[in-house]
């Protein structure tokens, strides 16, 4: 997958008892090395999850980052 804009590709990994959440694009801020979560970010099932970390996996493109997680509290703190 290639990208010439500053975006992150969000992939959620949820437990079986949670409904899957569709993949969505989020902005990548190179100055802070963080993703900028949109205000419309879907937090379904976040109260049921026990995740305590999230990881960013850089693919071939320097501007596109894969975020693989199951909605830890870090997502809430990182949201605008």
UniProtKB/TrEMBL annotation:
Record's signal peptide: 1-23
Keyword field contains Signal: yes
Keywords: Signal
Top-rank lineage group of the source organism: Eukaryota
Protein's name according to its UniProt entry: Secreted protein
Species, as recorded: Trichinella pseudospiralis
